[in-house]
Amino acid sequence: VRRAGFFKFAPHVLVLDKRSGKPEFPAIWRKQKEIIAAMSHRKCVYCEVPINAPSAAHVEHFKPKALFPSSAYAWTNYFLGCPGCNVAKGQNWPKRGEYVRPDKGDPGRHFVFSKDGDMNAVKPSSSAAVMVEDFKLKRQWLVAQRRQNVEKMLNLLNEAVQLHREGHEIQARRLARTLLGTIDTPDQAYSAALTQCFWRAWKRACPGVRV
To answer: Residue 77: is its pLDDT beyond 60?
Structure first.
């Protein structure tokens, strides 16, 4: 019904497949892949994995075009996704509400990242929880990659913590501040996970000490 309605609304946008006679969606958004990739610093907007080749970069429709055909050519509906997230999501959409938008506020606050690479939604019955399930954000390889990056970051942070314990507070804060400036940036892979784990470890080891 939605497809038919949209075809009547914008027949110049959709074309009919010669075999099936059904309207199709010409993938004209692929021509803008570089621009869309730059918007997320060539990271998947959902799992923050770096994407190092155009062939591995999917122009992801936040609202699936099969379910929301009127949004198929809406610029605000385009994000860069990795094959893992894009394939897992497919045509899924929450029965109520919508997924957490990657471009609205701080999407990381809806999730809790663990130092072992695992992640969960802050609220078990929220849209974020549905997103974790539908996007397979706890898939094995992804969890392993997050864990490796978090472990490297924590090893560096431990150097700052050791300086603090030895009484070198100024040096400790300077080192921690430099590390935070490296991970809490838009172009850093797994930035949300790294930043959360940084603050938990620092506050636990050096309570009350500002960075």
So the answer is: yes
